[in-house]
Amino acid sequence: MIALDTNVLVRFLVEDDAAQCARAAAVVEEAVAADRKIFLSDLVLAETAWVLSRAYKFPQPQILETLDILLSTRNVAVESPDRARRALRLAGQSGVGFADALIVVRSRELGCGTLYTFDRKLAGLDGVLEP
Fold first, then answer.
1. Kindly report the CA angle at 12 between 10 and 16, in degrees rounded to 5?
2. 128: helix, coil or strand?
3. Which of 41, 97, 103, 111 is deepest in the core (most CB within 10 A)?
4. Residues 75-91: pLDDT tens digits?
5. What span, in angstroms and rounded, lies between the C-alpha atoms of 19 and 67?
6. How far apart are CA 49 and CA 54, in angstroms?
7. Three-class SS of residue 116?
8. Is 111 helix (H, G, I), strand (E, B) or coil?
9. How far is C-alpha 126 from the chain's CA centre?
10. Would you call 4 exposed, middle or buried from its count of C-beta atoms within 10 A (0-12, 13-18, 19+)?
């Protein structure tokens, strides 16, 4: 198994830098050819969603679709597939960003009764309040 950092994954996905994209693609293609898994941590998924949104201005549905495709790809292993899927559903249903949805899902998993945030959109979710 190999792991990808956010910057390699983003270069592979957006193809905005020819040289880096080629290097990222070579790593991915080599892993697929050798039937090795490509590990993506929860943090890499969250950072990727954030970068696609902020730096590349991808619309939310496209980001969620991209993450869903990654989660469904045979050679991709993620830190917590169930958590990532729940965060995708929450983000899709509520309109909050994937990273925020991942924070909510993880907090709930750990038994937190309340998550406090200054993010008003996030604070509209069940169990999430402004201080």
1. 75
2. strand
3. 97
4. 999 999 999 999 999 99
5. 24
6. 9
7. strand
8. coil
9. 22
10. buried
CA-to-CA distance for 110 and 65, rounded, in angstroms?
27
Instruction: Tell the residue number behind the tokens 């899902």, with chain if given.
Output: 105
pTM over 0.70: yes
For the chain, give me the number of helices (H) and strands (E)? 7, 5
Domain span at 93: 2-126
C-alpha distances in Å from residue 98, one per residue of 1, 4, 17, 43, 103: 25, 19, 25, 11, 9
Percent of the chain with pLDDT over 70: 100
- Could you give the 3-state DSSP secondary structure of residue 55? coil
pLDDT at residue 117, rounded to an integer: 97
Q: Is residue 131 included in any domain, yes or no?
A: no
Residue with tokens 């070579």: 26
Beta strands (DSSP E) in 1-131 are 2-3, 38-40, 76-78, 115-116, 128-129
Total domains in the chain come to: 1
